[in-house]
Amino acid sequence: MEITPEKFSNLTVKLSSEKVSTIEEVVIHNEKTKFKNKKENPAYRIMQEVWKRKRNNGLDKFDTYTYKEYEKIQFDANNLDSTFMNRKIFNKLDFIFDYADSTASGKMALPIFLNESLYENFGENKPGKKTKKLLVAQKTSGFQDNQVISITAKNLYRDINIYDNTLNYFDIGFPSPVGSDGFSTYDYNLIDTISVRGEDAYKIRYQPRRTEVLAFQGYLYISTDSYAVLGATLKSTSKINVNFINSISTELEYDNPDPETFLPKKFVTEIELTPFSKKKSAKSIIAKRSVDYSEYEFNKPLEASIFTRKEEEYDAKFVDKTDDFWVKARPDSLSKSEQGVYEMLDKLQQTPKFNRIVKIYETLASRYYNVTKGIDLGPITSVYGKNEVEGDRIRIGARTYFGQNDPWRIEFYNAYGFKDHQFKYGVEGRYMFNRVNRFMVGAGTKRDITQLGVQLTTEDGILSRSFASSTVFARGENASLSSVNQTSIFTSIEPWKNFQVRIDGTMQSIKSANPSGFNLMYYRNGDLRKTTNDSHVTISLIARPGAKFSQTGVDRYEHGTLAPTIVLKYTRGIEGLFNADFNYNKLQFMFYKPILLGSWGKTLLNFEAGKNFDTVPLALQNIIPGNQSYGLVPNTFAQLNYYEFVADTYSTLHIEHHFNGKILSFIPLIKKLKLREVAFIRGAYGSLSDASKNINVEGFKYSAPNEKVYYEYGFGLENIGFGNLRIFRVDFNWRGNYLDRPDISKFGIKAGFQFGF
């Protein structure tokens, strides 16, 4: 039996004198076995053989394969006691504790969520690589119509391969104990030789050399014959430095059909989540996911139609199955507490008080408040804003919402500025005709005050972010706001999974919202104009290889992955169409990718490039995005003023690396704060033609970073807070060059909330 603080607070061992008369002494120890060097360590020889014979997933070996996958996700409320259960909030809800079970610590655990899923997996490696994961059955205890709870459940987990050097948990890299560089992080000790499923195996205990790093401790079970990993346990240390997480544990089982490959057999991951406290006695949620892999078949002919997406697969009733089906489909029968979850949640959802509690959580997480069937108010975070033109600004918005898989949605908002005494509005509607290829159309219109020039590869859609209304605190006065009147239509389709083709048609007029402080006037055919009239068509190709989404409706929630985003956009301005002033051609490209770098953390890489092939006024030009607010705004330049750099042709690169406390964990006293360090560098290069300067009345003010690459650099501290609530970040930014310009900022501090693990 493994003795842990969670299972035993006090342990008494009694020995019978009659049976131990020949024992001279008993020594109980837990210290690390010390070796002069790793070559003296017998575990090192075993791990060398494991690395030498590193195995690959057997699915890649066969021409075709199929297998079944049963997944069970359960949430339990943990560490409940009588004081907690007697609180006033549980009046009329106390029947739920009839479903609670005692834990090893003597406290109560209450099951609150259960989701079962059954998948059929198909794969083809030759002649072309194809995969299909078909959800054939799903059973959820309550919350199936909830906007965020079931998404949160799925979003906690990533697929891992024990042979990789880095294991992905919450998109944070943990060094694998089976990785080829494991000895740089872990100490290994050979404990015993045991039998695992009828096969002799070395039992090796491993633990991190330094407890402050993000690493695991546990056991490896290595075949004495083939040096294959038969199983492993991974448990976080007591000093784990991950937001909202108290502990992680994973148990892995593998089959090894031949000397080169492995096949997953069973994975069980348990995560303890607490919003505030790191104490073991804190009220918490235990999120447990188990996955059983079975019925592998290889080199069986597969019809091409298997890999084709079908309309019926996206029907909610497609996954409805009888109780008899689930009895046969489960590898193991449900425990008594698991069976009770379905009954308990059915009762709870008929209780008004419980539904009010769920609504509060749902509102905070989704930023929308459900006022009645089908109508949500929000986003609640956009209600108040402030800028130079409007002064204090109030914005009230709403959307239709009947369920997660709505095929249509209408959104609108009204805003009012107390300084300019003007009403603004925006409305947009979207309808999806086909869930398989996500063919949809939409249209919208808005009239609003907007801060242009804060994005290069702009978001499409009428209700994309209005930066002006979110700038409450800013560095210097920002008068460079535009009044935009815009109407758009669009259509989009996914001919292949995670590859979208979108066409937008836009008619807009743009003028300065503050003529005395920001001049957008330009010359056209010798005439002086203050309003830019524009009609254009944009074709966008958007690829998200590897991305995973929940739901099949017009809006989808993305699961956390390390999938890249690749965007290619072509825009054609059409003179004369709806009184448009200019013909022009614009090409833009964007690439974004998070990259795990083992125990050294995660790098966020964002590259953008573009070119205007024709002369256009400032309102239609490419602006290198500045950020005069004191908040954190991704992919902007913290020390640039708005409109400081304007470019016909541009390229920008943002590199931001999160060390996850790797460096600060070496510093005494500082390491107790559990801060994490961030380093970043940003660069921009571009050119602006004389014609593009001269078309603007104040074109002499504008230039591009063509003398040399403009750059900024700096560092930040994240994970600032207390207990498990560490969501504040502070950045320190330095401007690298172009320091002789007037009214610039050479150094600045940005701060904001950063939600994530």
Topology:
Elements (H helix, E strand, L loop, with lengths): L41 H11 L3 E2 L6 E17 L1 H4 L15 E2 L5 E17 L5 E11 L8 H7 L10 E4 L2 E4 L10 E11 L2 E10 L7 E8 L5 E8 L8 E14 L2 E13 L10 E15 L24 H7 L6 H13 L3 H15 L2 E4 L1 E4 L6 E4 L3 E11 L6 E10 L4 E13 L4 E12 L31 E15 L2 E14 L9 E3 L2 E3 L2 E12 L5 E2 L6 E2 L6 E9 L10 E13 L5 E11 L9 E2 L22 E2 L1 E10 L17 E12 L2 H5 L15 E13 L2 E11 L11 E7 L4
Parallel strand pairs: 1-13
Antiparallel strand pairs: 2-4, 2-14, 3-4, 4-5, 6-7, 8-9, 9-10, 10-11, 11-12, 12-13, 13-14, 15-16, 16-18, 17-18, 18-19, 19-20, 20-21, 21-22, 22-23, 23-26, 24-25, 26-29, 27-28, 29-30, 30-31, 31-34, 32-33, 34-35, 35-36, 36-37, 37-38
Strand content: 35-45%
Q: Uncertain runs with pLDDT below 50, 5 residues or more?
A: none
Q: Report the CATH C-level class of the largest domain.
A: Mainly Beta
Oligomer: single chain
Total beta strands: 38
- Count every helix, treating DSSP H or I runs of 4 or more residues as helices: 7
Report how far apart the termini are. 32 Å
**Portion of residues in helices?**
under 10%
State mean pLDDT (0 to 100 scale): 85
Number of domains: 2
Organism: Chryseobacterium aquaticum
InterPro entries: DUF5686
Protein name: Carboxypeptidase-like regulatory domain-containing protein
